[in-house]
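Fill in residues.
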């Protein structure tokens, strides 16, 4: 891909009333989308094409890490619909494409917890996300990009605790992924409150023969009302 552009905006409507000397604009609806450009890929092409072609496609899960993709970096995640897909190019140029992914729900700015291949069970580094009030929600995404091994499984969950992680609490548990189910993604929301816990991490349990799972895990919070 080259390049990627994220847009997050709010529709403003005129809320001015009599006697006001300055126009008052009121934000009413949030809108998010991602525009991508890249070079043709035989694996990627049918996935994006079918996303547009399906009559009523289920929302896809899209996550970005603009800082480079290292654990601890900023992440953005949301459910999206494939709004358009335009493959093409001029004579003498590399055949490419452009596509727009329209937000299907809230855009979550969070933290990238994991982005690597896992071959054994383990836990990630705890990250400070903050406590959640009753008006906030916790969102987490799991992307599984690659699977190798025989009769292999991975169970991923998000846990929380205070500094030290002496007694972590399970917060979000993703659906088990196996070599039979194949690659995929999941996006889960948990309503607050969560307190006094303010740190979160990913934990994973792996079974099977010569397993390897390439995973990308994010977590973030935001107000439920928006």
């Amino acid at each position: 891909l080259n390049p990627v552009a994220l847009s997050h905006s709010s529709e403003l409507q005129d809320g001015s009333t009599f006697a006001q000397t300055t126009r008052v604009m009121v934000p009413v609806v949030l809108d998010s989308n991602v525009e991508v450009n890249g070079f043709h890929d035989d694996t990627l092409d049918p996935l994006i094409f079918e996303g547009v072609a399906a009559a009523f496609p289920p929302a896809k899960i899209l996550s970005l890490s603009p800082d480079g993709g290292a654990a601890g970096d900023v992440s953005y995640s949301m459910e999206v619909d494939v709004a358009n897909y335009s493959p093409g190019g001029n004579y003498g140029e590399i055949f490419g494409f452009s596509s727009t992914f329209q937000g299907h729900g809230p855009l979550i700015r969070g933290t990238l917890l994991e982005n690597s291949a896992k071959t054994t069970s383990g836990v990630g580094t705890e990250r400070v996300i903050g406590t959640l009030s009753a008006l906030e929600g916790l969102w987490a995404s799991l992307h599984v990009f690659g699977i190798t091994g025989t009769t292999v499984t991975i169970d991923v969950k998000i846990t929380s605790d205070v500094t030290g992680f002496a007694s972590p609490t399970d917060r979000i548990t993703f659906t088990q992924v196996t070599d039979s189910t194949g690659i995929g993604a999941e996006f889960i929301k948990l309503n607050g409150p969560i307190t006094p816990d303010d740190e979160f991490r990913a934990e994973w349990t792996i079974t099977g023969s010569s397993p390897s799972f390439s995973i990308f895990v994010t977590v973030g919070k935001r107000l439920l009302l928006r």
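The first strand starts at residue 4 and ends at 14.
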